[in-house]
Design a protein that fits this description.
684 residues, 31% helix
């Protein structure tokens, strides 16, 4: 993996982390100063987290233990423990979900995870995660102050990230949340992100946040069927493809939590096809025994325990669902159904659950609260001094722009059309995503007041360059579904009167996202491929191409787009993903050559959906095969593809000995154009 200017990045983030101190928050979430708890072992910071968690669960009644298995864990007033909300997300910056944020609280929204993966830059990814955890701590501290120590309002310090599911099928709606299709890349980038979040290497005693990789384990669509779907996979595919990144999360990154998927798994050892949060093979055998995740807290996905009986029909009642899930060692029940809280007491009476099993689950949960410093004086926990001045700093904005720049993939550059000159007399900007700041945030985004759309970024660049170029713009489509051609004639006229056309097209959360995979969006009476530009976007593109004007196509999307027509007809293509709040600035920097494109495709782009097996088929080798490891067809853009400015020549490539370890290869390269290029060696 490349790590450009890694030292500079670490210094930059170090500056950020050192510059955000404020007085510690006044209202702790646990009061260890008052009696009787001040004299109890769980409040003794000299003991190990294991000893303290044991002391705490030994003090709790069975009813108190049961209540602590709900993610909205109620207070235990007699011990000075306030309520706690085990619910936050931080896929590419701290998400707005989980807490109650007021309008004054704004922070950094980075490019989506698929874009971060396209950088192939582990140092950069780790830096993004470090800023994310810093801002998460700041928001938590600020709201503890505001809500008198209540974490239900402040959101907890565990976050349901990263998403290390393999992006095996480009139709899956949540591919934007992942790090791509390669188990090795997925593992490396996932480890970097979790290390950046938890900051365990920087402070072995206290974690800044607890990472919760999801969705364990064989899970990547169909998303609309996830509440009742069961994936069927071979043991080979299970270990070689699907579970590899989760193994790295536990054994290399030491992630504190894991979230099982809604779906179930059929495989050798899991012949009953149990839903993942009730699956003993996945949780007890693989996660805890094989991977050594004995202390890992397993948190169900939202409503996952109730789905065990309500939609999977794996068992008949809520009581049985609670029993089979906690017996499989799912420790926390996420969701308003509160299946554990309402049913575990009766399950104990009916001898379906041993009270010690409940105590073990609560122990694992409390162990991680100890690791976060929840039970220690603020003077001992440096992260409790992080405040509002850590949010959306100049340093984090620079990192945000850099991460977006490095993620941009140059897919085509006919006759070296890019970088563009600012001396063109008139630019035309056309397409539904030219001014789509909300779209470029992706899903699970935070609150920001510093977004820059593509058109705003280009206009600002031209203004700063003292260019006299004019920019005429028309979206032509109301949104990315693009169901009306009413404004196409005006768009074509705008293009015809320009020197160069910049078209910004692609997808939005309406075409891909949680709960819905890609589906066909036809253009009136013309049927479109599910992986193509939706609606009438391609029709608009064809009409603009007919003007004969040079065209730069900018694609904004999460899952890859099959754009065979565009690939053949337009002059240059940039894949910018969902580039985050400051994506417009980054795109302009690359478009006009301030920075060369460095990104590489973290997923294979097929020519059409006809090159894919059925979405419900989890066999990696099912013809014509999935991902670059198994696909036997001719891709439109292969995994790892990406151009840059200038000509790069590789010579003297040497592989020795015949069998090499990862990274043991050497070559000489020369870049005759712009600086910055990213090099990789791929083997199948």
């Amino acid at each position: 993996m490349a790590s450009q200017n890694g030292v500079a990045l670490l210094l930059l983030v170090g500056t950020l982390l050192a510059a955000v101190a404020r007085p510690g928050h006044a209202v702790p979430s646990v009061d260890c100063k008052s009696q009787p708890q001040a004299g109890m072992k769980f409040c003794n910071s000299e003991l190990t987290p294991e000893e303290r968690a044991t002391s705490l669960v030994d003090e709790l009644t069975l009813d108190e233990l049961i209540q602590q298995t709900w993610t909205i864990a109620p207070a235990i007033p007699r011990l000075g423990i306030k309520d706690y909300n085990w619910r936050s997300n931080c896929l590419h910056g701290w998400a707005a979900s989980g807490g109650h944020w007021d309008d004054s609280q704004k922070w950094t929204v980075f490019p989506t995870p698929i874009a971060l993966a396209a950088t192939f830059n582990l140092t950069l990814v780790r830096a993004v995660a470090a800023v994310t955890s810093n801002e998460g701590r700041a928001l938590h501290n600020m709201n503890l102050d505001k809500f008198n120590g209540s974490s239900v309002e402040a959101a907890g310090l565990n976050c349901f990230s990263p998403n290390v599911n393999l992006f095996r099928d480009p139709r899956w709606g949540r591919g934007m949340e992942t790090f791509g299709e390669d188990p090795y890349l997925l593992s490396l980038v996932g480890v970097a992100y979790t290390e950046g979040l938890q900051q365990e290497k920087e402070n072995p005693k206290y974690l800044k946040v607890v990472a919760c990789p999801k969705h364990y384990v064989v899970h990547s669509g169909p998303d609309q069927d996830r509440s009742h779907f069961t994936a069927n996979t071979t043991l080979h595919d299970f270990y070689d493809t699907y579970v590899a990144a989760f193994k790295s999360q536990i054994m290399a990154a030491h992630a504190g939590q894991v979230m099982p998927a809604y779906s179930g798994v059929y495989t050798t050892g899991s012949e009953d096809g149990a839903p993942d949060c009730a699956n003993k093979f996945l949780l007890k055998k693989v996660l805890r025994s094989e991977f050594g995740g004995h202390n890992v807290s397993v948190c169900s996905d939202n409503g996952g325990v109730s789905m065990v009986y309500a939609t999977h029909h794996f068992v008949a009642t809520a009581e049985l669902a609670a029993a089979v899930s906690i017996n499989a060692t799912t420790d926390l029940d996420l969701g308003h159904d509160a299946v554990y809280s309402k049913n575990l007491g009766q399950a104990v009476k009916d001898s379906l659950v041993d009270p010690q099993t409940i105590k073990d689950s609560v122990w694992r949960n409390m162990y991680w609260r100890m690791r976060l410093g929840d039970f220690d004086p603020e003077s001992m926990v440096p992260y409790q001094s992080i405040g509002a001045d850590a949010l959306n700093t100049n340093v984090s904005q620079k990192l945000n722009i850099r991460s977006a720049r490095e993620s941009i993939v140059l897919l085509k550059n006919n006759k070296k059309m890019l970088p563009l000159s600012t001396t063109a007399h008139r630019f035309a900007m056309i397409g539904p995503n030219i001014d789509a700041a909300n779209v470029q945030m992706g899903n699970y985004a935070g609150n920001t007041d510093s977004s820059v759309s593509i058109i705003d970024g280009i206009k600002a660049y031209l203004m700063n360059d003292d260019s006299h170029a004019e920019v005429a713009d028309i979206a032509a489509c109301v949104d990315t579904a693009c169901q009306s051609k009413e404004k196409f004639a005006e768009a074509v006229d705008t293009a015809a009167h320009s020197d160069l056309v910049i078209m910004v097209m692609g997808l939005s959360g309406h075409q891909e996202g949680e709960g819905h995979d890609r589906s066909k969006v036809n253009c009136v009476d013309v049927e479109m491929d599910v992986l193509g530009l939706p609606g009438c976007q391609e029709t608009l593109l064809k009409q603009v191409v007919a003007t004969g004007k040079p065209i730069v196509l900018i694609l904004m999307n999460g899952g890859p787009l099959s754009i065979s027509y565009a690939a053949a007809q337009v002059d240059a293509i940039l894949e910018v993903w969902y580039p985050g709040a400051l994506g417009g600035t980054a795109v302009a920097d690359v478009l006009f050559g301030k920075h060369a494109p460095m990104g590489r495709m973290p997923i294979t782009t097929v020519a059409s959906s006809g090159d894919l097996p059925n979405a419900t088929d989890y066999g990696m080798a099912t013809a014509p095969g999935r991902t670059y490891k198994y696909f036997t067809g001719e891709p439109l853009y292969p995994f790892g593809f990406g151009l840059t400015y200038g000509d790069i020549e590789y010579t003297a490539i040497q592989l020795a000995p015949t069998q090499i370890k990862v990274g043991h290869a050497a070559c000489t390269n020369s870049n005759q154009g712009r600086p910055y290029s990213l090099h990789q060696l791929k083997s199948r």
